[in-house]
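Renewal narrative, Specific Aim 1. Our central claim is that a sequence can be written position by position from structural information alone. The example that follows is taken directly from our test logs and has not been curated for this report. It begins with the structure tokens describing the chain, in the order in which they were read.
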């Protein structure tokens, strides 16, 4: 009876062992497939290299309008902060007194002219009488002296007339150039120009306008080397264009040219002071504005560019992840340049046929295999606008 019961138990044990072995065979480890990453070759195109800097706008002309004659302020002939044309009368200072002084000087000049005319007639008469020995030489000498004094008096009268005319002109304070006039600093009826010239207001020319910025020593050397290659002189450098943008503007909408470069570098900062001249007809740029500046100085064909997101950095510098022929990720050290239409220029460390990881960067581990997917042209990241 026991033997009969042992046989079914033994059979159940064999079946259980077979099932266990089958289960072990079905759960054997299978390696996961390599992670998918998107790759793309570097973009090749012609680029323009720029010197990038920050600067400040400054007026090309700024003048303090002062009272150069003494008197009571008679009128203010402009609105504070308004634009005026050259020659526009801005202030009038008690003109009547200086007009009378001018008329007085003119009358004295007329009298001096009449005296000189009479003295010259007497001199000619005495000269004729001396030749006929009708009068003495001493009489002729007196007549000559009288004529010379009359000539000197006329010259003095003419100078007094010009001085009076200048002072009379100073009673009208006019705009020396086209510009914006500040608020007036004196009031009508106030006595001005008593002890020293009294400032009345300030006029500022805004079109064109200066943009002052500094260029570091390395960039100066780069520009000079490029100028020598192109056979440019120091005067030719002034023809280089300058592009300017405000902090709130996109790109560099304001165009001008280099106007001045300091002959020496500032030893304390290692920079060269440079100035650009920018047309400003709409007066968008105001003195004191903080601006972005760039100066195009050379062009390069077939430069290599990659999206900025594809570039990483560590303690040793900047790098990109590249998939080699065996689909293994490599970390490639690169030297980067400026942004150009949203893409970063690669100066060195990359080849035109390299496959650069542009998406799935967290899955791309150097030394490990990946499944590279070539990025479609329409899936490429849109370049960010230059700022």
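The sequence written for that structure reads:
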């Amino acid at each position: 009876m026991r033997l009969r019961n042992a046989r079914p138990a033994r059979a159940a044990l064999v079946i259980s062992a077979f099932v266990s072995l089958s289960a072990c065979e079905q759960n054997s480890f299978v390696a996961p497939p390599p992670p998918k990453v998107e790759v793309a070759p570097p973009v090749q195109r012609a680029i323009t290299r720029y010197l990038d800097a920050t600067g400040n706008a400054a007026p090309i002309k700024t003048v303090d309008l002062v009272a150069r004659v003494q008197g009571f302020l008679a009128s203010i002939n402009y609105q504070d902060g308004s634009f005026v044309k050259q020659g526009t009368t801005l202030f009038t200072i008690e003109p009547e007194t200086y007009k009378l002084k001018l008329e007085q000087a003119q009358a004295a000049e007329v009298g001096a002219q009449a005296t000189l005319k009479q003295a010259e007639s007497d001199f000619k008469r005495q000269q004729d009488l001396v030749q006929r020995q009708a009068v003495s030489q001493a009489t002729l000498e007196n007549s000559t002296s009288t004529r010379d004094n009359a000539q000197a008096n006329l010259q003095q009268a003419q100078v007094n007339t010009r001085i009076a005319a200048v002072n009379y002109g100073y009673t009208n304070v006019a705009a020396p150039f086209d510009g914006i006039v500040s608020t007036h600093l004196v009031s009508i009826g106030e006595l001005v120009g008593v002890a020293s010239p009294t400032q009345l207001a300030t006029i500022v020319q805004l079109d064109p306008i200066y943009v002052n910025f500094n260029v570091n020593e390395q960039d100066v050397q780069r520009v000079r080397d490029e100028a020598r290659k192109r056979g440019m002189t120091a005067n030719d450098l002034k023809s280089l264009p300058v592009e300017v943008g405000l902090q709130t503007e996109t790109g560099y909408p304001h165009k001008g040219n280099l106007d001045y470069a300091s002959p020496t570098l500032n030893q304390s900062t290692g920079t060269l002071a440079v100035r650009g001249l920018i047309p400003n007809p709409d007066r968008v740029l105001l003195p004191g504005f903080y601006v972005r500046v760039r100066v195009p100085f050379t062009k390069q064909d077939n430069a290599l560019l990659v999206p900025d997101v594809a570039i990483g950095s560590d303690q040793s510098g900047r790098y990109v992840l590249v998939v080699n022929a065996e689909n293994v990720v490599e970390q490639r050290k690169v030297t980067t340049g400026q942004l150009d239409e949203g893409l970063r220029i690669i100066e060195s460390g990359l080849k035109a046929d390299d496959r650069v990881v542009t998406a799935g960067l967290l899955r791309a581990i150097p030394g490990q295999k990946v499944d590279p997917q070539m990025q479609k042209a329409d899936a490429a990241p849109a370049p960010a606008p230059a700022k």
